[in-house]
Fold this sequence. Notes:
InterPro entries: cNMP-bd_dom (IPR000595), cNMP-bd_dom_sf (IPR018490), Cro/C1-type_HTH (IPR001387), Env_Response_Regulators (IPR050397), HTH_CRP (IPR012318), RmlC-like_jellyroll (IPR014710), WH_DNA-bd_sf (IPR036390). This is Transcriptional regulatory protein. Keywords: DNA-binding, Transcription, Transcription regulation. Helix 4 crosses helix 5. The strands form 3 sheets. The chain has a 4-stranded antiparallel beta sheet with strand order 1-8-3-6. The chain has a 4-stranded antiparallel beta sheet with strand order 2-7-4-5. By secondary structure, it is α+β, with helices and mostly antiparallel strands. Strand 10 (207-209) and strand 11 form a beta hairpin. It folds into 2 domains: 3-150, Jelly Rolls, CATH 2.60.120.10; 154-224, Arc Repressor Mutant, subunit A, CATH 1.10.10.10. The radius of gyration is 20 Å and the shape is elongated. It contains 9 helices and 11 strands.
Amino acid sequence: MKIKSFLPLLTCIGPFKSFTEEELLKLFCEENHQIKKYEKNSMIYLQNEVCSTVDIILRGEIVIQKIDTNGNILTLTTFGTSDVIGGNLLFCHNNVYPMTITAKTDSILLHMKKDFILELCQKSKEFLIEFLHSICDKTFILTNKLSSITMKTIRQRISEFLTYEYHYQQNYRIKLNMSKKELAERLGIQRPSLSRELSKMREEGLIIYDAKSIMIKDLSILQSSDA
């Protein structure tokens, strides 16, 4: 795959908006970048693997996960097309991935080497500013997600999820576009713990649920996520 095919997309992404397609075509060479395909569910980076590039998702979705010694999976967040990853690690003294990064769908990533990123920062002040914005935004997302997970009870996490989906879907019947296993990973809890809490909430008349949806019966749970 050649970078030329993706130039229209790149010029719409924050850090590269200050460059024209012609300028980018001259800047990119075989030595400073690589474009790679990843099949769904394939590992992109292992936890504790050294970060040596800044990556842009040219196509698909990737998921950031923390896997503990017991094999439990905590899904931190998902990034999609045009998102930039690795910028907050590349220039660290301890530049290793603290979490595992996996392809959620078939994906294509652009991997850019450190020297090339430095060259772009020197050539364009706008690139530098947008690159720093991207670093800060990703750090905020991950820090905020970790903070919200570690400080909330299981019920609060479920309620927070339902509150978000209620406002997004504009419906008391929340359609689930994921399995219970994936939902448990997203909430940072074990699947049996999720099932037990959902059963308790059903017994208390708060919800009704099946494999494909959760029906909110008591609107008070939409407020409990702030507790």
